[in-house]
What does this fold into?
Amino acid sequence: MAWTGLLVGVVFGIILQRGRVCFNSAFRDILLFKDNYLWKLGFLAVGLQAITVLFVAQMGWIRIAPPTLNFFGNIVGAYVFGLGMVLAGGCASGVTYRAGEGMTTAMFGAVFYGLGALAMRGGVFSGIRTWAAGFNITVAGNSPVYFDKVGPTLATIFNINPWIPAAIVAALLLWYTLGTKTTDRPTKFNWKMAAIALAILSPIAWITSEAAGRNYGFGITGGWISIFDTFISNQPLRWDGYEIIGIILGALIASLLAKEFKLRMPKNPKTYLQVMVGGIMMGAGANLAGGCNIGHFLAGLPTLAISSIVASIFLILGNWTMAYILYRK
Amino acid sequence: MAKYAVTKSIDVRGEVCPVPDVETKRALKKMKAGEILEVWIDYAMSKERIPEAVKNLGHEILEIEETGTSEWKIYIKVK
It folds into this structure.
């Protein structure tokens, strides 16, 4: 069943490419350009998924696995990830779909992202991860929608039905995204359409991924690790590894059809060094944090996991710090 | 040949996000009213985002000219 990741990935890649869904830009534009277009796309997708993912869990089609809370990993890992994504010129999903659009810097960024994640999982950085694992916090799931042991969520902390915080957060995010002014951008596939498409695809990702034995929704970091495990150690490709290949193919197809595919190269070779360093920081940070902008922000926030809330705050702060250093003037 | 009396031209093709946006902003800051900036880009997202940012700064977009496959020149009149 791991191959279903390929189908989900292709659709995901098309949405990311057509919707220009870059979280690095989303977080940064609001600081540097006072532009909230992609920022709102992200938060609308989170608000809608809080309902759609919980709905399929309520139906008994999946059980939700909110990520484990680890203050050290979620704070330090996410902050390093946030710094890295500015250097790499894209977030985890950004460098992945841009590789499919022919951006050569993104190809380097993505490969070094995978290497950084591998190094934190079991390589030179793994001592940090092993040490930090001592601070892992899990609790008993307080609802049948959850697995038995989960990272704490707003629902487990207050011991309330998960629908209560999900409805409140969804209502607040919908009010904020739809009720306040949004920066204009002349796109055919606008931010609302992209957010709705993501909120529909997300539960499908959870269902197919759990059927393949991987208890989570959208993800990027684990997928790149899986690709390296297959490439180097001949292990079977997992659901999220297929998903990554799908994203690249989807973005390739979408950009070819829109005549937006082009092999692009910056004039200053230093840019390659910058994206390689950024990629390593992102990969190592994401693996330590237990997720990237997709695992924690896009997929984790809708589960209202405390780990994803903490990690999202710190990956945004990391992004702002590096964007301020490099681009404020 | 040249459509506009371009004062300054920047070629930001292939640069990582958001270098094209930032370089455009930096160039505009140094220019005087009435001058024309030409920005050469090759990324579709920049084509959508740069004009909006430039308008917000109060400048005028004269034209977005397609110059090749996924390549455009944006002409900006400084206000």
Remarks:
- The helical segments of chain B are 19-29, 44-56.
- Chain B has a mean pLDDT of 91.
